[in-house]
Amino acid sequence: MTNKFAHLLVIPSLFMAFSSFAETASSPADQVSISADKQLAQLKDNIGIFEKNVEIIHGNRRIKADRLEVHKREDLGDNKQLLVATGSPAYFEEKQADGTIMSASADEVRYDVAKRYLTLIGDAQVTQAGQKINAKSITYDMDQQLISAEKGASSDDRVHTILVPVDSKKNKSKGQP
Questions:
Q1: What is the 3-state secondary structure (H, E, C) of the chain?
Q2: Would you say 150 and 115 are in contact if contact means Cβ atoms under 8 Å apart?
């Protein structure tokens, strides 16, 4: 009986933790859907924790991870959420306005909902429209379209970028060399 009572306490707190993340939802397509093998909540700290086979879908955004923490704090701005996904690797993807898919992966993926700011730590990779960046860490301001990538301080590996010329794609489709 106490186990059922604990679930009754956890469920409302999880709804509260995600309410501002879902406030931008204006249609069923924008609802927040979270699935995992295990869900926990740290009520005192306003943290929702999802473990094992985690997937969150919100509008045109998807996150897949081994573990996802959703932090809700006043100091995080209007939406007040910071999503911290970890995995081997954790994945983040978003369909862009132009229809392309921006995908990111790393050992740790942090997404500040209000600022639309991604921080990728450990074997980080961002791919969009055929372009690819690999580095130890990458930060990406999605609104400003600013990206910064760095190698690890104690690593000989460097930042690696692959660029696909846009004009060559157009010329090939027109039959030009």
A1: CHHHHHHHHHHHHHHHHHHHHHCCCCCHHHCEEEECCEEEEECCCCEEEEEEEEEEEECCEEEEEEEEEEEECHHHCCCCEEEEEEEEEEEEEEECCCCCEEEEEEEEEEEECCCCEEEEEEEEEEEECCEEEEEEEEEEECCCCEEEEECCCCCCCCCEEECCCHHHHHHHHCCCC
A2: no
Query: Does residue 171 come out as left (phi exceeding 0), alpha (psi in the -120 to 50 range) or beta?
Result: alpha
Cα 105 from Cα 64, distance rounded (Å): 9
List the pLDDT tens digit at each of the 177 positions of the chain: 444 434 333 433 344 444 444 444 445 555 778 899 999 988 888 888 999 999 998 888 999 999 999 887 565 445 567 889 999 999 999 998 888 899 999 999 999 888 888 999 999 999 988 889 999 999 999 888 888 888 776 667 777 777 777 665 555 555 555
